[in-house]
Specification:
Distance between the termini: 16 Å
CATH superfamily of one domain: RutC-like
CATH architecture of one domain: 2-Layer Sandwich
Strand content: 25-35%
Length: about 150
């Protein structure tokens, strides 16, 4: 099943590519790799949720935000490549988690993004990863996700 079909089965729709919030482009392709800029949990141009994990937000809320970030990453990938089926492999995901002091469950939060990629791409969605706790993220976002994918032929 193609990734776009899988999204339909999951009841998900890719949003329009979010407008960058600073001086950068949504993605850059270098050779056979597409580098996707960090995406926030933006829906309709606004943050879906604000706050810090372990403070105002639960792990489950963070996972939902990370999932939105991943959908925004996939929107960028589709816009850059024309179709998600051109992704040969999700290579690396980096998740940044705005964390209250003492919060150490960043990896569980970023699972929201990682698990979505496996749902959509199957084995091609398994990836290397970093989950990093940070003091603050742009616009007060709880999570930011960036992605590197290998581009296949079509």
């Amino acid at each position: 099943m193609k990734p776009e079909q899988k999204l339909q089965v999951l009841g998900l729709e890719l949003p329009p590519v979010p407008t960058p919030v600073a001086a950068y482009v949504p993605s850059v392709q270098s050779g056979s790799h597409l580098y996707v800029s960090g995406q926030l949990p933006l829906v309709g141009g606004g943050l879906q949720v604000k706050g810090k994990l372990g403070g105002e937000l639960t792990v489950e809320q963070g996972q939902a935000a990370a999932r939105i970030c991943a959908l925004n990453c996939l929107a960028v990938v589709r816009a850059a490549l024309g179709e998600l089926d051109r992704v040969a492999q999700v290579v690396k995901l980096t998740g940044f988690v705005a964390s209250a002091p003492g919060f150490t469950q960043q990896s569980q939060v970023v699972n929201g993004a990682s698990e979505l990629l496996v749902e959509v791409f199957g084995e091609r969605g398994r990836h290397a990863r970093a989950a990093v706790g940070v003091a603050e993220l742009p616009l007060g976002a709880p999570v930011e996700v960036e992605l590197v994918v290998e581009v296949g032929g079509h």
